[in-house]
Amino acid sequence: MRAIRVDGYGGPEVLVEVEAPEPVPGAGEVVVRAEAVDTIYVETQIRGGWGEAFGVHPPYVPGGAAAGRVGAVGEGVDRGWLGRRVVAAPGTKGTYAELVRVPVELLVPVPDGLGLREAAALAHDGVTGTGIAEGVAVGPGERVLILGAAGGMGTLLVQLAKAAGAHVVGAARGGAKLALVRELGADVVVDYTEPGWTERVGGPVDVLLDGVGGELGLAGFALVKDGGRVSAHGAPSGGFTQLDPAEVAARGIALRGIAEVQFGAAEIVRLASGALAEAAAGRLRPVIARTFPLSEAAEAHRAMESRSLPGKALLIP
């Protein structure tokens, strides 16, 4: 089978297509023939040298989620899974490949009426986004600022916050991305690459959903009301927002970070199932900006790193 392998940390060029042995499912596993492979920004950071922090060491096949059909089952697995459309949920390893070995506890059936590409686009971000939305518990009439609102997860958070009845301020960069964020329901959009962007947010906010980190995250944090809630879950700027614990406590702000969206298998499946069901019902729309052949994984990483994509990039084996 074809797969993408990284033999050493570096730029996108280290993503190399190779011929690899076809996986054989072990006890409690299946093999999924991938039809769409999810990509997330952190995979570019792991490839670029953050792998040690995530316990990922070359050589490795990147990727942590995909959608496709079950082609083989291992010992102890119900044969009823054969041929079913599924998401191989986050926690699956080595999904930049035509065939993916998946623990059965990470399989999520794809509902009728939802395409496999859309299901793949929800694999990571549907889980994390839904988990964040549940954790911060946005209420009707609250003002919510979303940083990175045009990214794969940001586009979902805009929709989830709006569905909860919030007044949504979406912050992103560039006219095309801002137009998308407004189309998805944001009440106000601001370009955070422009000077004075925080003034255009329109005043204090009850909730900050920070998918960017760094200095932008700090600027967003300054807008949060005392007693508000913050989810600081993103680091595409190069690092998570570094907040002063003493200030957070003094202002009575409830802070959640990346640790609060690390879920066990059962919770991953619950959150993924909910996101897929909402999408199948037409209440949640994953935004797929562009698809790339599996062989062009390096181009997909370049596009993500350039911040040029409004929404998700998928790999198509």
Summarize the structure.
By secondary structure, the chain is an alpha/beta fold.
What is the count of helical runs? 9
Strand content: 25-35%
Rg: 19 Å
Structural class: alpha/beta
SSE succession: EEEHEEEEHHEHEHEEHEHEHEHE
Number of strands: 15
Binned, the helix content reads: 25-40%
- Major beta-sheet overview: 7 strands, mixed
What does this structure look like?
- By secondary structure, the protein is α/β, with parallel strands linked by helices.
- 29% of the residues lie in helices and 27% in strands.
- Helix 3 (125-136) packs parallel to helix 4 and helix 3 (125-136) crosses helix 8 (265-280).
- The protein is globular and about 55 Å long.
- The mean pLDDT is 96.
Task: Give a topology summary.
Elements: E1 2-6, E2 15-19, E3 29-38, H1 41-54, E4 66-73, E5 85-88, E6 99-103, E7 107-109, H2 116-121, H3 125-136, E8 143-147, H4 152-163, E9 167-172, H5 175-183, E10 188-191, E11 205-210, H6 214-221, E12 224-232, H7 245-250, E13 254-257, H8 265-280, E14 288-293, H9 297-305, E15 312-316
Parallel strand pairs: 8-9, 8-11, 9-10, 11-12, 12-13, 14-15
Antiparallel strand pairs: 1-2, 3-4, 3-6, 3-15, 4-5, 5-7
Helix pairs in contact: 3-4, 3-8
List keywords for this structure.
317 residues, alpha/beta, globular
